[in-house]
Fold these 4 entries.
Entry 1:
Amino acid sequence: MALDFLAGCLGGAAGVIVGHPFDTVKVRLQVQSVNKPLYRGTFHCFQSIVRQESLLGLYKGIGSPMMGLTFINAIVFGVQGNAMRRLGKDTPLNQFLAGAAAGAIQCVICCPMELAKTRMQMQGTGEKKSTRKLYKNSLDCLVRIYNKEGFKGINRGMVSTLVRETPGFGVYFMTYDVLTRSLGCEPEDSYMIPKLLFAGGMAGIASWISTYPMDVIKSRLQADGVGGVNQYSGITDCVRQSWKQEGWRLLTRGLTSTLLRAFPVNATTFATVTLFLMYMRGNEEPMDCEPTPHALQPQSQTSSL
């Protein structure tokens, strides 16, 4: 179990480093004003951040997911493993149920972590050197929010996070299970790693597509109040206002950058976890690209998703 936990942490960290630049782009596109948009699309947003805020602008808020990965992976691994042992049979349906349970419980850490990440990513928009930094770092961000708004403040967006993460993790684990069963691979298979990369990447894409509209709402709720004024009174009000202003476009705001991020992040995570476990375990037990109920269950997002 200790090796699985460490492997998950390493895989998650690798995924964050690979995917964080596009995560910043995603959040900026999701929360930008519809009436006065700063960015025309994914690549324009990417170029604008690099030009206006330097390359480091793409990595704003990375401290929060890096700090939270250990706790999130501990929860995901523990819940997923225990759930699969209780369910007994290793089937795609049970993988979905176990993944959904893990996704729901890890929201306790995921929600505050993504709140800090979102606030840091929005700070200093369009400025190479921020003249007025509200938050020094992710931890300072959470402390300031707690001092001002209390426990409720640092859990802003919890309901939307729960609605996103629960089915999202279920779809993720189920898709990966189905793909690895279909592709099949053995340790001697020279195509094992490409198959593993493909299965992990496609599982991440399937997970994000299944819950993406709720991720847009979550980002808007967590970014709300950055300028000192709250626009939304809650999740229902956010959905109502957003739909009234944008219609169906709300459902795909920032989706391109999310999918560009999803494949390499999850492919990197699975490859890192698998190679680490193969190296550490050696010939102790058979190793294939289909995870056991208690191993090889990394998450799809610093979340998220």
Entry 2:
Amino acid sequence: MELSRSIISAPLPQPTLRPAPAPRLDRRLPFGAFSPPQPLSNVREHGCCISRALRPRQDWVEGWVRSNDTLVRSVPILAGGASLVAVLLNRAVSGIAAVADASSSQSRADILTLALSVTDILAGLVWLSIRPKSISPVVPRGIECKRVGPGVSNSALHELLWAWNSLTTATCCKSLVAVYGGNCVLQIGVAAGSPEDGNALTVDAQKFIQGSLYKSAMESKKQSYLANLALYPGRSELPFLPANTQALILQPIGDKGIAVVGGDTIRGFTSIDQAWIAMIADKLDATLSKSFNS
């Protein structure tokens, strides 16, 4: 289905420009008012200061820690080892007996210091053994498809394609399925391949509606975010999505439909993305309701 749109442009009347009055130097501006613009010579003269103010401030501490991750994780081991050696040297040089005596304040202090040193060493070993796993996008394994359901008007299709382009541009969305009024109105992006003919697997809207994912999302009327889809057994209800889909959003579209948004990154949808997708769903609900009621 192809869309065509014609734009008729007409020349607009040019507004009459009036010279701005020169600011009076003997009059003070009220608090919060804008000062008059500076001459271009002053802007060029102080251009370095302006660019420096607009430049984002870099957190050098965070950058140094990221670049020296192994050294930072080894700091507790180094501190604990140095404290342990210092206690032993102090014990040997001061002439105190090597055997700990509970009645001596020095012995009690040494025991506490040794305990803290061993704790630091163990904490450093834990830091070195446990490292955060880097999360990177994956390439969805599937087939590119674009299917439009029956009964979708040109205006509704234009709205759906706008939503798809917006999601792929601003988020990690790679697959989009919109089910409305009991039918699949749009299936676009990467879809799972059919084992029979190798084409993109068609969405069985009726089977999907009977699943627990659809029912729970429609009953709650709230967005459901599956940040790591591999951990949810309900992914078997989504055979039309690529097998390696990392994250999923189930967004109700009013009371008659739902949007399935698949991403290529674990926890790839931020809170801003989720709120934005909810607003897009409200816009699609208004458009699709008019399309199917007309």
Entry 3:
Amino acid sequence: MPIVRLPHLLTPTLLVLVLMLLVPTSSDETDCNTLRMGQFICPNPSLRQIDPKTQQLRGCTRENKARVWCIAAEGIICSETKNNSFTRELPCKWTNGYHFDTALLLSVFLGMFGADRFYLGYPALGLLKFCTLGFMFLGQLVDVILIATQVVGPADGSAYIIPYYGPVITVVRSDNWTYRLPQDNW
């Protein structure tokens, strides 16, 4: 069998072409922060990212943001980690140790003495309620409603500790940039 010799310049060119086909390119990688809904799941359900003490995402800051691990859909490779996991900043509620159920129970049973306001960090209002017997029990009733609807919260601006899937009220506000779709019965 005769030996076939390739021209001298053709051998390095073939070697480069074969290497280019074998080495994966970075065009398969995606910036996972630009993924659309349905292309990822956040937070990663296999990791325990809910803090049992605060019932919020671990690492929640005063700015109400937490960085959590997420998973991209199958076949998507993230450019940051070179696999299908990545981190994303999610909203959370920063807590500082005030329990919703404790505040509500104090308001119902000891609200006439201002115990709920002392607990939440409002000593002046607590003393005023104590001296006036809860504004003759009318202030106690108002405070029960305000705490139950989560209008009144802790004085330091933190959120109540409520179970993650518990009775959390989220207020939806509108401004000049809010667009309301008309209903059929309007």
Entry 4:
Amino acid sequence: MNWVVYEALLSGANKYSTSFGRIWLSVVFIFRVLVYLLTVTRVWGEDQRDFDCDTRQPGCRNVCYDHYFPVSHVRLWALQLIFVTCPSLLVIMHVAYREDKERKAREKLGKDYRKLYADTSKKRGGLWWTYLLSLLFKASVDSVFLYVFHMLYENYTLPRLVKCTLQPCPNTVDCYIPRSTEKNLFTFFMIATSVLCIILNLCEVTYLVVKRCRECVSKKYNKEVISSGEHSKLKVKQEDTMSGQPIFNGMDCRPPTIEIENSK
């Protein structure tokens, strides 16, 4: 997989993200993708070849390795990184859809064209929901993969020695996992960065929801102030009319006039 092209695509999501989103993207590429590319593939590169057992029974080593390593760490992390970064591409696609819709409307209406969106990249309406759901999806993906790792590898750790009794092994066979300490260190590092990304996603969700709620409350308050102001003006006009004292107020009434009689 060409991670450079993938990184270039996701970097475009930076301009549509909040501060939490930019921090999240930096953590993903610096502490997850780069670590994955530069170190993890080397640590797990020849894992099956270096998996050694105290027997030369044909098929025993392969069966034991498949039992203790049902899915490779490397492939699981690659799948996790793909799933966790894809929602950011959906946000870019949604913005591109808005821009294309604006362009078609401008070409079709010509002089009568009016903007459909004040800002195509502003998180309002459907784009706000797309962005919010993408954050929840990313946090859910990381949580699911953490659970999968915990189920496959208890406590996320690998022992130095495992005992295998599976067929075709002739008896209880001792098998040795190569570089288990090094693998555990990288595993804990990847888990810690996944937890950090989940926290950043949840913080961004909270920020978006709180900001949106404050905007809605502020908008409602402004409407109430305007309506109360108009109501008070109407009430003053009604009281002046009932008192029989006309007051000059713009176009509401005419100023008093004086009739002058012509003297003969």
